[in-house]
């Protein structure tokens, strides 16, 4: 396929047609690849390793990004439009090669070129190791947003941390999760470019001095205990078939000086080296906790480090554009992805008042006009608060600034809520109900002009339950932007069969950048020939996943069985153990009722547990223990298989979501803010079995209740039941199937008679059951029976699957980004018109 007609090249804006070096036709690609192999890797084709070839290919692709990248930045500079700075402690971008090829539209050309050299491009794409710079949904959202920003040609920079060790690599040994370090940089990262010349110094610790300067002004000097040096690694983020290439700028910490010479000269060589090592520890490792907060000093330092680097960098860009510091809010819209970067509010204030001598009121106005805050969770254990003493020891000047912000804010609140001191107490940035803490969500709210939740239910609960006092004070600040995922990675790259079918059925590829057009599939939902092709695509995807499962676990699964999938972080609120209760119930039915008319199912689990989250690790053990028994019981035959696929990641997801037929979204209603996995499944034509939680509600609305398996209590009902007194043991007593399932587990049936093994789990279910599994159990099992009935009619099932995909138009991150841009950032696209490079 020739994708290089002149019109297309012109569309790449400023890429001169005579620029042969980065041209995209086979001859130029071949030349570039062989050059990189020899002159970058120092190898000839005969002796090149797999990694040499991968790197040479990656550099060849990167060259083609770089030209567009430099055009984009000069265009942004020239037009001076507002740039989005997306601040996130995590970016889970996944493998880059396939995505860049897709967006540059050179997949076919490069595949052909390499094939002639005996190299399989698809194999290089498949084997690429991904940077695991995030835990799960939050980091993956940031990556989808970067893709949509670039595709929408909105000027944007993603700011974060260049962790040396990403999220651990999970293996399963004897059924238990084992964590292995993820040395993702071991063989080099060809996508990022290090820019030490843009390094910045970051202060930490120490104390402040107050003084009066020469002209009689009150001034504050921060005397730090130590300083570290931050340098950026820039990764180009190409939009889909547009000339815009934005930047993901991740910061690494280094020692300010290679050695501390004062210590060195005293003869303490090891001490000097140690100080260097300590500085570099700052960005060594990603905290592997998802949806839980640990008040660790290093974590606070990481957060401040990358935010300080980011704001300094924005000031450098401002200066480079010749603009005064007061233009900051017009030049940048800074989005806080959760509270991890919320310290930015205090840091921008510090920069403006202490370093640029801007008066407080003006600085505060600029700060609020700059920041917007996205809340991601209602779980109390995930809300960040820092013990005051710890905070002061790391950021003494910021604590002073926070006190001053708080003083002014609470005075405003006292006037607004006259006589209501208890409300003022609740609003305070400092939690003084026991040990004192700095409340980061409150800092983010006060310092932002917009606050949003990530799905409609979540945004409502923020207003009513999480931050009602802030809502009473500033109702106009609160907004809701439902999450989305990019159809480029999650359909085009992951599910090429579906992509080809969609393009053929819709007559063009516009759906790739305009996902709502996928609605055009709906009119084919009753077309027998289309349905047959749809089923073939799904079956091919299921066979690929079956092969992956066999390779990784040794378990052979039947691609004709129903693929029932639950992949996400392992967490009690996500209730993987509710799915286990259902599986055990099925098993019990098979053993006691000879229920041979059961629909054959393969239950596929995946997900990591935080290393310190003992209960979640026990949930993994429970899944694998049930799998061992069920899979080896000859009586069960093909009717029931259970698989735990280790190391769930973006790469694994790309194989899993397209193969799924049933998407398990079974969190307790009111606990999952949005979810994005649910959207990936729906786009790929899986039906959802889910609670009315997060974005499940919106998915159900869109696809229609008749194409969605809803069960369980609503968030309201769950809260009411909890308030009126929840007695899980009564449910256990009164439901024979539930009792049988729990008794099998706690009797040691799945643990070779070791009745104690799962007791922490089963005791909790019987006594507290915070996530109310037992309350939803009967409804869930009944709903699963309806799934069986529906699956028996393959034609009707596929029809529903097509409708799920066709009606998922709302769940593209392109739509989310358009909403942020219009309502929160007040920024617009800066497309390349192709005139003047
Ligand atoms: C999409 C995704 C998630 C989020 O899944 P949820 O089901 O929304 O929790 C987590 N991890 C990876 C690797 C993902 O791709």
TrEMBL record:
EC number: 2.4.1.1
Cofactor(s) the protein requires to work: pyridoxal 5'-phosphate
Modified residues (N6-(pyridoxal phosphate)lysine): 680
Protein name, per record: Alpha-1,4 glucan phosphorylase
BP GO annotations: glycogen catabolic process
Family matches, as InterPro entries: Glycg_phsphrylas, Glyco_trans_35, Pyridoxal_P_attach_site
Function: Allosteric enzyme that catalyzes the rate-limiting step in glycogen catabolism, the phosphorolytic cleavage of glycogen to produce glucose-1-phosphate, and plays a central role in maintaining cellular and organismal glucose homeostasis. Phosphorylase is an important allosteric enzyme in carbohydrate metabolism. Enzymes from different sources differ in their regulatory mechanisms and in their natural substrates. However, all known phosphorylases share catalytic and structural properties.
